[in-house]
Specification:
The protein is of the alpha/beta class. It has a 6-stranded mixed β-sheet, with helices on both faces. A 4-stranded parallel β-sheet has the order 2-1-3-4, sandwiched between helices. It is elongated, with a radius of gyration of 27 Å.
Amino acid sequence: MARPLWSSEPEEERAFLVGIQLRGRTMGDVGDSLDELHLLSETGGAVVTGRLVCRQPSVHPATYIGKGKAAEIAAQVAEQGITTVVFDDDLSAAQGRNLSEIIGCKIIDRTQLILDIFAQHARTKEGRLQIELAQLEYLLPRLRRMWTHLERQRGGIGLRGPGEQQLELDRRKIQDRIARISVALEDVRARRSEQRRGRRRHGWALITLVGYTNAGKSTLLNGLTGAEVEADDRLFATLDPTTRQIKLPNHQPALVTDTVGFIRKLPHHLVDSFRATLEEVNEADVLMHVIDASHPQVDQQIDAVHGVLRDLGAEDKPVIHVLNKMDLPAAELHARRLAERVGGRVVEISALTGKGLDQLRVEVADYLKSRNVRVHLRVPVSEGKLLAAIRSVSRTYAETYGDDETVEIDAAVPGSMLGACAKYDIEAMGKGVEEGGGTDGKG
């Protein structure tokens, strides 16, 4: 079961935030990132007492910020009763160990904080497994930092003391657990893949919601489908994917899946751990990129989403950009500029009030209709469900009943139905006969 990477022993966790401004980074960029770290810390259950930005040309290899700055933070920790110092970037094992010794309190980085929040919010067995895998992969290279109190007990040449033995035992246990979780998640991936194949066989179009955390994806899912998914105004309210049916104006059967929200500096191994879930992105017929048009850092959020889509290999997927929270004045100020920036299909909505949802349904239906493929099929009359599906979601040009209890249909069907129709495609069947060939008397 997933657990936080640190225990919250004090009744109130008092956090101090540290960012670093390197060459090429503006103070505005650092400030925006620390603002987000502030929200993450509060989501994790801490009270933020202050922050510090360190300006330096490069990262200090031993302490990340240099001993002088670390000593400065140590003084504030002692004065203000701070229990945790949170760094806005990942720390190496050595940096974390050295900072802990100088500052004298718990030291965590952005990845640890995100993993802890994920551990708190995961509800399903699958979600907890994915979080635990990410935690263990983060922890494995940092084990030595946790066992520094036993290093003095190591023996001489050829002998390993209790600390080294325990370190090796822990490493093996973690590696074994990683292997078991990976096998379990492969089963999850296989099950999800089979579910998607089943949906495609029955002609369902697959739509996936993507977007920055807290952009309003779950609220939009509820508005479009009548679902009752938790939709709190907080980061990472949704970790476990939820799929519901959406009713489109042309009655085409379609499903919408909500996914985990993205964020800047999202750890790569976290993306890898959630790959079983995020495959919904790669398999979608169309993505709905939900954008919080009212957010002051909306451009950076759009860039972060594009970055994760690139990591997933889904940057070329067709996208409908959904400018959300248009009931807020700030969103109206950004709307025209954002529409020009993202280009393509753009719909302005308020998932909270329902404004624009009908237009969004029309846009989705029009897009899926435009992706229909013209086919000429010969389908047995006994395939009643398939025939009904074709008639309900396709544009039919001709339909003729044959003497052999089949129906020849000339229609434009959704791309999602091609798999179900493939074996009844007349052209494909003709090619099969030609390739198999008849005898020419020389056999």
